[in-house]
Write a structure and sequence with these properties.
Layout (H helix, E strand, L loop, with lengths): L6 E5 L4 H12 L3 E6 L2 H7 L7 E4 L5 H15 L4 E4 L15 H29 L2 E6 L12 H21 L4 E8 L5 H10 L4 H10 L9 H12 L10 E4 L9
Helix pairs in contact: 1-8, 3-4, 4-5, 6-7
Amino acid sequence: MDFKDKVVLITGAAGGIGIAAARKFAAQGAKLALVDLSQEGLEKAAADLHGALLIAANVTDEQDVKAMVAKTVEQFGRIDVFVNNAGINGDFAPITEQTAENYRKVLDINVVGVALGLKHVVAQMKTQGSGAIVNTASNGGLLGAPGMSAYVASKHAVLGINKSVALEVAGDGIRVNAVCPSGVDTQMMRSIETNAMKGQEEKAREQFEAAVPLGRYAEPEEIADLMLFLSSDKASFITGAYYRIDGGGGASSV
């Protein structure tokens, strides 16, 4: 897959999947615009990605989102690929103990943030007449998970947005797809393990991995490989789709 001189914008770029995707795209010749909440976090994560444009932005703030798109276009002239990846898992709690604050925070970042990114990147891609978008959903967008109703609701919403926007822009030369990972060996999984079994994180990991037919978490680079494929010309007839990348977990589910 050749991304030489293609411009790739990635949100949540300081996190495990985001930075893995950035390195994969860079290895294929892409020009990178990397977005995360913290400039310091971006600089640390992307220290080896010389020439990348680093943008601190809050994906829930529409002015920040407009600015990240404008800065990318000002620097590189266009956006060929958008990896719409920023997200959080929120707090674990049964529904009787969930807070409105947790729901609002998770939905704001995982749903409103995704929608705002699409709104402003799609507008730019329409002027170009081309583009590929990959939204980061989750197997939580396909299944339930006790204690994670806010997160699960948000990722179901991402898949609904993914399908709807793909239909809206199918005639504009823009493709829109989503990836649905299960557990990935990143800091987010450390948080989930702590939320599930505080003080017994290793036991939580063992139980989570044992539930995966392949017997392990995914590596961030494995998710990034799927993102690259969906962004490439090799996926030129794929849009409005979502892909499980779950070590076989979905084979026994809906």
